[in-house]
Amino acid sequence: MTSEDEKESFKPIHYNGTHDDPLPHSQSQPQLHAQQQQQQIETEEASPAVQGRPWMYNPIKVGPWTLPWYYASPETQLIMVSFVCFLCPGMYNAVSGLGGGGQVNFKDVNNANTALYSTFSVVGFFAGSITNKIGLKLTLSFGGFGYFLYVASLLSYNHNQNVGFLVFAGALLGVCAGLLWCAQGAIMMSYPLENQKGSFIATFWIIFNLGGVIGSLIPLGQNIHSTAGEVNDGTYIAFMVLMAVGFVLAWGLSDSKYIKRKDGSRVIVIKQPTWTTEIKGLFETLRDDYYIVLLFPMFLASNWFTAYQFNAVNGFYFNIRTRSLNSLLYWLCQMIGAYVFGRLLDLKFLSRTVRAKLNLALLFALTMGIWGGGYAFQKTYDRHSSKPDMDWSTPGYVGPMFLYMFYGFYDASFQTCTYWFMGSLSNNSRKLANFAGFYKGIQSVGQAITWRMDALSTSYLREFAACWGILAGSLLIASPVVFFKIKDHTDVEEDLKFSDETLKEVQARDQTQTLALAEMPGEK
């Protein structure tokens, strides 16, 4: 087949799942079927991206039920990476949400967190290059192990106050988390079709934060009759077991080159990554997509508030069993926030450019409303006030409870929008891995700063003011990207400029494949 014939046979297919032209009706069905088979054979011979084993593309059966996905589908891979994060960072969030990692002495835990986010910020920024080189399985599994070791250090601290081990585990977790979150972000943003990115982000965020919800039930159940200030050994051991399952689960993921979407298109990757190409690619991303720096303040702000919320609000104001309940409600509201904004970001009757602008405006309104309520609450106490140790049975608990729930809703809303804005700029897995690395690296700079501020006994009102100011300011700085750089569709040819793949290797293979995949059980 000549190059001209190939161009004619493989018409570009947009990532919204629509074809440029319908099937020709002038050909008879046998002729058309024979031609499609020949195209399939030639495509598979020419493309290393189609060498996955046949079982990867068969429907998954669980007993009498047939699931609407196959193993190498974006949906299955998203569910798997969501449960890795559910079991590792999700459980870590449950521990952190208790305030001071469940310890009475917040200072040592704050220093460990400062070490964590310091290494996270450095490794995270370059994590895209590392992830693209070593692959998703190793990246996610190594990343999950760091969470396991960190909780082990908290268990050790419960008995011997070994600060050195705690800080070391925090620093190592920063390295591991930088890699894990980079790989997760690349999967979540590059695997779905363009019109599914909001729902993919929401699905991940819901499953991930379910880890925080279930994880919060562990200390709540074990400490429900206790008014003490620290958690017991059984709590930490339970978290360690779940985290171990998580980092082992990561080895079940498929390689990106085998992933096939329902329209038959492939994930854009680099086939032969080297350390040189990936370090070079990192700086090429900054050079060619220079406008991404306008999103950096959003990256910085996206977890700036966690030290304040976990320690200055939940950790300082409530006793241990109420902190456990608050933590559960916080993560539950994160699930709700992700679902709401995931649906809003994928509204079918609005163009992508309109959705981007409307959601930015809505996020700004939430920033003013929720954090305005937070200001009214924060004025009632400060770090040097006597600890209220409020219990859920105490009169006046309902107001602070709802504020903490809204903080959780806002966190998920802010991060869902941030990921969606990044994902709307490209469909290239390699580039989005770099974007995710920038995001988590810069996010961690903010967390390193705020945990250090808390360790230095900064006034709670000053911590609050810094949170509110950077959140509002970051949205204003990001607005030019949202208004002028996000388009209704990203051309595949543009994404291929940052890859060594060809159009033939990533577009939908033929109509037969497209129809076969689209008509799997449960799909319409």
From TrEMBL:
- Comp. bias (Low complexity): 24-40
What SUPFAM superfamilies does the record tag this protein with?
Answer: MFS general substrate transporter
Q: Which domain of life is it from?
A: Eukaryota
Keyword annotations: Membrane, Transmembrane, Transmembrane helix
Where is this protein localized, as stated in its record?
Membrane
Q: Mind listing the GO molecular function terms for this protein?
A: transmembrane transporter activity
- How is this protein positioned relative to the membrane? Multi-pass membrane protein
Span list, region Disordered: 1-48
According to UniProt, the name of this protein is UN93-like protein
Q: Which organism is it from?
A: Talaromyces atroroseus
